[in-house]
Amino acid sequence: MTPRTPGKTPARPRTASAVKSALATLAALSLHAANARPARRRTALVAYAVALILLLATALAGIAFGAVSLSPADVVDGLTGGANTFIVQEYRLPRVAVSILAGAALGVAGVFLQAALRNPLASPDVVGFTKGGGVGAMAAVMLSSPAAQAWAIPVGVIAGTSVTAAGLLLISRRLGGSLTTLVLVGAALSALAGAAIEYLLVREPQSADQAMVWLAGSVYGSDRADVTALLAWLAVCLPLVVLATRSVDVAGFGDDSVVSLGRHPVRVRALLVTAAVLLTAGAVTSVGGIGFLGLLAPHLARFAVGSRGHRLVPMAALTGALILCLADFAGRVVAVPNEIPAGIVAVVVGGPYLLYLLIRETRKHA
Amino acid sequence: MATPDQHTVSSEIRKAPAPVLAMAGLLAVAVVASVCVGASGLSFSRALQGLLVWDGSADHALVLDVRLPRAVLAVLVGANLAVAGLLAQTLTRNPLASPQTFGINAGASVAIVLTVAILPGLGTGGTVLPAFAGAAAVGAIMWFLSLSGAVTTVGLALAGITLQLVLTALVQALLIMSASTQDLVFWLAGSVTGADWSKVSVILPFTIAGCAAALLFGRHLGVLELDVTTGQSLGQNTRHVAALASLLVVLLAGSAVAVSGPIGFVGLIVPHIVRRLPGGGDLRRLAGLCLVGGPLLLVCADLLGRVVAFPAELPVGIVTALIGTPTFLLLAARQRHR
Amino acid sequence: MQHPPRQDSRSWRTLVATIATLLLGATVLAGCGGDSSGAASAGPTHTITHVLGTTEVGAKPQRVVALEYSFVQALDLLGVTPVGIADDESAERIQQLLDKKIEYTSVGTRLEPNLELVSSLKPDLIIADSTRHAKIYKQLGSIAPTIVLNSWEGSYQEIKDAVVTIGEALGDRETGVQAVKKHEQTMADLAAKIPADEKRTFMLAVSTPDSMTLHTAASFTGSVFQTLGLTPAVQATDPTESGAGLERVAAVNPGVLLIATDGAGTAYDQWKDTATWKGVAAERDKQVYVVDRNQFSRFRGLGTAEVIAQTILRNVYGDA
């Protein structure tokens, strides 16, 4: 690794290769990413740049466009406290911010879980974290008064997610602690949480509509307090995220290799799972159960930058943010005046892709 | 193998092992209990009387209109799901296979909810074909995945669960867009509350055809448990047999979802439990055991759901999940200790 | 990847930089612009107490946005036409609700009303529902003074109180009180036409594809029945009992049964030919009436209560 900064490289070939890798990244982000070559460092940097630019463009579009059409001057006016202050500052900006943060958190959580369970199909949803959080949130909505919901929902989500995760780790440890067991126990807990959700729906069909929207995932109604809360939560999680990122590669090896590297395999796994739980809880509190984002984002990111943890984690964050931001934006503008929850947009667009992924993934392991 | 036709269903029944008879006895008790318990305060003896004495009284009408179809529907759905689970597990050589874990139930649900959203007022009969279509689509995907060769047991199950999650999200999307969640919560959880004879008549042909086929062709289907080359060397056309088994899974699971919603865990745990019973072994016997065990589980679960939350009801799908999750974990644990 | 992963310091910098960028970006997005604390009008205000607290409302709000059907009916009683309604994009429901066509802007679904459109209407009062809109109360508050009332799960009494509260918010409490008084008089007149010795029990059931949802004494229709001096068939603290099968309906055995449906293909169609259904008192006495689900279960307003009462008088007692 020569300490050569990008600025010192000869201009022409760099541009050419940059264009090439940018195209490769775009291809990787599109549906035809099946055979992206193993990404190198520069490709990774370009991938970051492309994803960041796309994200910025989506964010700007999300601020500029919506049910009410605003001219650029109106937007600037709104940003500086003019006539459209509410639309720009209180409605669109927080939604864009929350979708970026929550999407990034879910993407990173997916990477951690896939590393911890050494399974490319693991995601916070498959092992029941999002559903567990959903049970907590629904119970909070149904049992608490309207005024108390502001704090009851986060508490419910965190409690639900943590109980599920603790159950997952404890039960699979009792059953031998192998990765297969972990995945199976996760799936069983997910089904159990699903049944609990059904029970709450049957008990309180009055709130079933809202519960459904929440379970599908929606960025609707995010305000500045939500942004601040999520931001604070993720900031607190950041050290753990950095630590966990350092363990992503280690966890990919067999348990013996982990030991030979001087790490404790169970501790490595616990660290990754804990980080995933915390990130998922934060995201689920803000946007509900957009489950498969945690599966989709890491895969897209892997196409673009390969599977080394320190490259994959930032890219998964960017990809997750981009997907959720795009989904929310699309949901706001396609059926005006109706709002389509971001989770629905994401599943309708991402579902087929996920299917393709599934087929590819299972074949690869054949 | 030369003269498979000698083994008819009747000869199989004559040789029926003790567990089948014992379970059939239990099932009979459960069905009678199911007929005797309900939301209205009909006493046990009067319900029994209503079942036995056809006198046109209100008690008799209630038993005939409500409780009997419900018990019968639970029996049929339980049989369908358990046999479908057994076939799916044999077909994919995967102990984690079941209509639920492979997303086949969810596939049928998506198709049904979509149909109801577009064409309300079709009734149960109209949702059967879409249910088959949805189940078949997912079944085809899973079959394709399992054919791709040495996919790991867990890998395939995970793929199925992921598929199920996406399909469930699609169901949620459809429900939100059509604003009909409130009306469908019971169906969504999996329930035989709305049982009537018309639903029984919808599922009955498929149960009879599917289960008879499973019993008759059990010997042929057994070849699926062997690996591909052994099967071929035995002269069986594995592909045809697999196609038949897949078709049966789709028919059995699809018709069950059409009448009762997606009920989980029955197809997963019943085959495992009956495998542990004495007298299990070849596929036909297992199918016979499932044919009794599935109904037994579902009728008991339905009964429990009515007793626990009296006078309201707990959808049977919730009860099977509550029973099924620990059972599944226990089975997984025992598997490990072997 | 044969060698154990060696941490590449440059990539680490990228990682930290990316995360920092994301967090910073979000901070900027979140923090930019000053605080805009609500759109409280400059003129004289008065305080309205509602489900989620108190709100300062301008003296005479003119541009009102209603996020639930019953509020539209209340506003109509008070002589105000809302500028925006969360109508689930079905204008015909509003027409059915008010029995006339009004000019308004749809602001999307009741579940997730489009706040951009709400704000573009520049309202001076927003009326929201406590079940569905508690989460967006703060955001609504920064568009315009917002009062939150219980419509979705509201009892008859709460709906009546809401009319007074809305009148108060419009700066005209007296009209609200008068409207409720007039309504109570209408109901009393209608109740007087019902024989005092009525012993039958009354129930509204919403028929869904697989089962029925029974409305109890605590529901809106249940309290309307009681106001008319009638006995609801199910006494309970929960307003509705969902997932009721044929057996449950037969056990409740109502004397008069109103069945609300959205159309054909529901449980009612499956049940009505069975002997058990024919044994239910209401069916036996030909006292089963299929009614419109919008009117009887979705709208929940004073006008709705009168429609329910008139429907019963017309059908059960043959009064025109």
Topology (elements, then pairings):
The complex is a heterotrimer of chains A (about 375), B (about 350) and C (about 325).
Chain A: H1 11-29, H2 41-64, H3 72-79, H4 85-116, H5 129-143, H6 149-174, H7 179-203, H8 208-216, H9 224-252, H10 255-260, H11 265-287, H12 293-305, H13 309-333, H14 342-364
Helix pairs in contact in A: 1-2, 1-12, 2-4, 2-13, 3-4, 4-9, 4-11, 4-12, 4-13, 5-6, 5-7, 5-11, 6-7, 6-11, 9-11, 12-13, 12-14, 13-14
Chain B: H1 9-14, H2 18-36, H3 44-52, H4 58-92, H5 104-118, H6 123-147, H7 153-178, H8 181-189, H9 197-216, H10 218-221, H11 228-233, H12 238-260, H13 266-276, H14 283-308, H15 316-337
Helix pairs in contact in B: 2-4, 2-14, 3-4, 4-9, 4-12, 4-13, 4-14, 5-6, 5-7, 5-12, 6-7, 6-12, 9-12, 9-14, 13-14, 13-15, 14-15
Chain C: H1 9-31, E1 45-50, E2 53-58, E3 64-66, H2 69-77, E4 84-85, H3 91-98, E5 105-106, H4 115-120, E6 125-129, H5 137-143, E7 146-149, H6 156-169, H7 173-192, E8 201-207, E9 212-215, H8 220-227, E10 231-232, E11 240-244, H9 246-252, E12 256-261, H10 267-271, H11 275-279, H12 281-284, E13 288-292, H13 293-298, H14 302-317
Parallel strand pairs in C: 3-4, 3-6, 4-5, 6-7, 8-10, 8-12, 12-13
Antiparallel strand pairs in C: 1-2, 8-9, 9-11
Helix pairs in contact in C: 2-6, 6-7, 7-14
Protein name (chain B): Fe(3+)-citrate import system permease protein YfmD
Subcellular location (chain B): Cell membrane
Family (chain B): Belongs to the binding-protein-dependent transport system permease family. FecCD subfamily.
- Give the oligomer, counting copies of the same chain as homo and different chains as hetero: heterotrimer
Give the termini distance of chain B in whole angstroms: 32 Å
Shape annotation of chain A: globular
> Rough shape of chain B?
globular
Count of the separate structural domains of chain A: 1
**What profile does the largest beta sheet of chain A have?**
none
Give the class-level CATH name of chain B: Mainly Alpha
What's the tally of helices of chain B? 15
Mean pLDDT score of chain A, rounded? 81
Q: For the record, give the distance between the C-alpha atoms at the N and C termini of chain A, rounded to a whole number.
A: 36 Å
- Structure class of chain B: mainly alpha
CATH superfamily of chain A: ABC transporter involved in vitamin B12 uptake, BtuC
CATH class of chain A: Mainly Alpha
- β-sheet strand percentage of chain B: under 5%
Number of strands of chain A: 0
The fraction of residues in strands of chain A falls at: under 5%
What proportion of the residues of chain B is helical, as a percent range?
over 70%
Named at the architecture level, the CATH assignment of chain A is Orthogonal Bundle
Helix content of chain A: over 70%
Mean pLDDT of chain B: 80
Q: Please write the string of helix (H) and strand (E) elements of chain B.
A: HHHHHHHHHHHHHHH
Membrane topology (chain B): Multi-pass membrane protein
Pfam families (chain B): FecCD (PF01032)
Keywords (chain B): Cell membrane, Membrane, Transmembrane, Transmembrane helix, Transport
Family (chain B): Belongs to the binding-protein-dependent transport system permease family. FecCD subfamily.
